[in-house]
């Protein structure tokens, strides 16, 4: 298999597995475990198969173009460092999967757990395989997200939710800093490609922006690796199921920060800022973590703080900036992952089989579970740094490095002492972990009798402990080649220092310090052990006030409070202030543009002729109508509709006056339809009478609001008048109109340029527009189907009731007949108009390409023809005689318009290209026939369909009411 | 002077429309939107400058732009007229549904608190 494929497999397999596991049924515990196990095995085998290809320090790269136009590709990059991290992620992942199969209760939705776990595994793989800085930051955030899901897996548990939220907030915030830092680094070095960035070390360091970039990247790494002062999220994350803790806090999540530091080490490793921040955070974390671990009563809590402490150790090694320090850091990363994963699993077994993790309740478990006990003792010894185990070797290297670097900075001189002290703490808490749990009298406070776990649950612990031993005894043979390849990836071939992985280096300073630490730890346990085990206060001595979690919670509530305050000050749920803000913002934008560009009015005032005075008189009427409509819209809706129609008519005449016959025609027809629509709607609005008065407070408020709005409206009007006058009085700028006028006939086959633009040049716009119209029609129908009128609009309107009540009734006639018959003549006229309006619509449609008219006008005219029949005869009469299928018409309209466009594609032309030719027709003579006419037919159908649909749907509301009443009456009679 | 009159007309229409837009009752807002769309249609139309008696209906062989009124703003406004009809219809139905569901024709869906 090619290396590219293998690379792709180790990244993609976990994600695919996660997707599949998510689809498994809730109880499919074993299938999900087998799936996850297979996924990790396949990835692990692929990773192993890749090993020979770059054991000598080659870098495998696979670039998958993603957004080639932006130069962004997905780059997978595998070198020695990524390989060793991949091996940890996949190897320990496989063991955790096996362990989790037995740990997880069948009552939980276990497939979801495995799905999260696999997705997290994939995200981690993405981090370590990224060959691109942005890509790394993206996967980094993905690990934060999936760790959130994993920690909060038992979401019914409040502490799990809290812990998950805290972990997400801290690590994702760090991730955002990381992203900004990466963007800075990318902009300094000119590339986001990791290889380019590593090669641009001198350029990056010379740039002053490298300081903030480094600080931001370190924010990301230190939050992820739970370094002081961000360490507080890790102990809270212990609310997660134990397999998650074993995975996240040994081999993966927290090690992502270490990985990032290692990746950045070649660039920044020798800078001052790096030394102070990284080494400072490392040494503080090492000590604080170890100190706090001593005082924990919860097994997992102890392990959590011990993890923090060991991470501090690794970070300190990296902070020292020496090549040997980096090598020791990688080595300890691997060792810590193995012994810490096995210890977490052992703690989980104890919890599972004894029912508690509280060391005050546990005691003498060795006699109940000797095998687990032995395994835990070995792993804890590795944690304490006892010889013959892997922890000893890397701790030796650490001490050697600290001693070797103990000159120069003041901090360096203190380091050997601090390191030995921390090691002694480590011995102390490891001892306590073992002695308090496994030795002493049999437990008395347990709910059940502890016993050994199922064999397969113990198997992962056995494998890990065996590795601890193997590496501890034969380091050069087991981990040597991998460590070397990882070291080469960080340090390069030329700078690779000499180091020895032997068990015995002779009597030297590090050994002495190791012995001191061991002896100190044992002595401290002998003296303080009893006190520690009963420590009633729980917390660590002397560090009560240093509670990051508390500060975090305070900060969170502060942020929420602040947001609420801002919202209460600046936000509103009310419509009117929002709309006013929109209007003001539009005004401000216009004013800003005017001030920036400058507006000058060049008045052109010729002596007004008679025509101009007529025009002015026209608008005196139109403007008056508009103002009166605004005045009356609240209490006299009918009057307002009529007045608005007046303003519409005047603008219609304006269009005729100023050479826009098509606009005038369309506006006139649409005006008719709009008016009918509004009249239909009036029926359902509440009565509003002037004599009903609101309270004094409300009145005062409303007066104030009206005054402000009047000013706003006046300013808007003045501004628009000013701008339009300024534009109208300056010479025309040559635009695209020349093109349209010149080619309308020769290329579009029509003389009406406006229509040719609509159906030919810009037909795609029109297509979009009729689609919108169709959607609006359907939306209106959908909204009205569920329409329930308010109770006060239910009874028949006053006018209708009055009609039923009129005066004395002649013989042979019913009440109301007289009033109904007053409509007789209009009704006959309107019935007879039906064919004529249709002929007019056809006429408008046919001549539209050459003369004013066209699809829109014809469609609206047709719908008016239908509408007239409704008005004259009522819905039932019309629907008995006419087959109205407006939804079908909409569908056909769209189909015809789209089909007309698709035909052009069939001829290898762009969508909606039109063709035309002249044909000789009998009687009519030579006429141009354009395919655009077919498109226009689609427009007609759609417009008539949508318009009729809206109007009929609205008109039917009154009918439906009547029908419902009739049904109710029937129901009552039946009862 | 035609320009001045039309500019004043656009101003009056938009002022009336804006004022109605800011009113509390849904019917007022719908009237405001209609008036505003008149104003905006005329405004867009006026961008092509005002000419009388020169509709953009070309004669064969005389397809010279200077002979005709600017067709581009007219095409834009024609679609705008139809779309503003659709907008009015949709908003009318939304206001009816809101009135039916909440019992109030206030734009906030409830009567203002005392």
Automatic annotation (TrEMBL), chain A:
Coiled-coil intervals: none
Record keyword Metal-binding present: no
Biased composition (Basic and acidic residues): 801-813
Region (Disordered) location: 793-813
Chief place where the protein resides: membrane
Its membrane topology: Multi-pass membrane protein
Domain of life the protein comes from: Bacteria
Database matches in InterPro entries: CPA3_Na-H_Antiporter_A (IPR050616), MnhB (IPR007182), MrpA_C/MbhD (IPR025383), MrpA_C/MbhE (IPR046806), ND/Mrp_TM (IPR001750), Proton_antipo_N (IPR001516)
Any Gene Ontology biological process: monoatomic ion transport
Boundaries of every MrpA C-terminal/MbhD domain copy: 625-687
Domain Na+/H+ antiporter MnhB subunit-related protein: 825-948
Domain NADH-Ubiquinone oxidoreductase (complex I) chain 5 N-terminal span(s) in chain numbering: 69-114
GO cellular component labels: plasma membrane
An example Gene Ontology molecular-function term: antiporter activity
Keywords of this entry: Antiport, Cell membrane, Ion transport, Membrane, Transmembrane, Transmembrane helix, Transport
Transmembrane segments: 31-52, 82-101, 113-131, 137-154, 166-192, 246-267, 273-295, 371-393, 413-440, 461-483, 503-528, 579-601, 613-631, 638-658, 664-686, 707-728, 766-784, 828-846, 852-870, 882-907, 927-954
Localization terms from the record: Cell membrane; Membrane
Boundaries of every MrpA C-terminal/MbhE domain copy: 705-801
NADH:quinone oxidoreductase/Mrp antiporter transmembrane domain sequence ranges: 130-407
Record PANTHER family: NA(+)/H(+) ANTIPORTER SUBUNIT, NA(+)_H(+) ANTIPORTER SUBUNIT A
Protein name per Swiss-Prot or TrEMBL: Monovalent cation/H+ antiporter subunit A
UniProt organism field: Caulobacter sp. 602-2
From TrEMBL, chain B:
Membrane protein topology class: Multi-pass membrane protein
Residues spanning the membrane: 6-22, 29-48, 75-97
A Pfam family this chain is assigned to: Oxidored_q2
InterPro entries: CPA3_antiporter_subunitC (IPR050601), NUOK/Mnh_C1-like (IPR039428)
Superkingdom, natural source: Bacteria
Subcellular location: Cell membrane
UniProt main location, coarse: membrane
Alphabetic keyword roster: Cell membrane, Membrane, Transmembrane, Transmembrane helix
A single GO cellular-component term on record: plasma membrane
Family classification: Belongs to the CPA3 antiporters (TC 2.A.63) subunit C family.
Protein name: Na+/H+ antiporter subunit C
Taxonomic lineage from the root: Bacteria, Pseudomonadati, Pseudomonadota, Alphaproteobacteria, Caulobacterales
